[in-house]
Fold this protein.
Amino acid sequence: MAMAGMGEDTRSDRGLHARVVNALGLQIVDSRYAPGDILNLDRLADEFAVSRSVLREALRVLQSLGMVEPRQRVGTQVLARHSWDLFSPQIISWRGRGDYFAQMREMLELRLGIEPVAARLSARLMTAEQRAAVATAAAVMVDADRAHDGRRYLEADVDFHTLILQGSGNAVMGHFASTVAALLRTREQEKRFTITDYTPASAHRHNDLALALVQGDEDAAYRWAYATIEATLNEFVAESTGTAPTPS
């Protein structure tokens, strides 16, 4: 019985720890704490109604993400954004709730430099099974757009880009797939969600990219990958400035 109780305590601590990590991470992302601020651990323990040991464990997670750092004889200090692990799916999720457009612009600009190259490599290296899977994902996106099924569209979009990055044969690009997946899933938090006036053209660009991959056309794969991400980037930049372009 004692062992069962200990197990329950451990699970309870893990739940509290996760809650504190999420809440405090969001507060830092939302600028409730400015870079250089020293966290008052007694106040935080009271705010979250947790023990100091649970709070310290949560702070270790945030430290591993580059968001805070313990300073000898000073305390735990909040770090500036340039220190954060901005590729972390957890930070991407937090930024998606309050820093959505800025993060989208930054990450889409980065993806412009990575995914077209990944698409070129995938056109050369993908297995027959991977080519079939990417074609299926693109077809699902077209169908989900017609059905206005945002959830199905999003999951197919995640599958599509994951397949391209992992099919490149480049381990670093393959690892980037989890970052892209987390970024795409922040659209769940966007007020308009996934299906928009831009979606039909985007779905068909994905389909043209899939065709290039299936045919092993490296140049076409590069062009369609670039065009797909560039169009999305232009869309988000325009919407963030209130000058939305005409869907094409």
Summary: The radius of gyration is 21 Å. Confidence is low (pLDDT under 50) at residues 1-8. The longest helix spans residues 2-29.
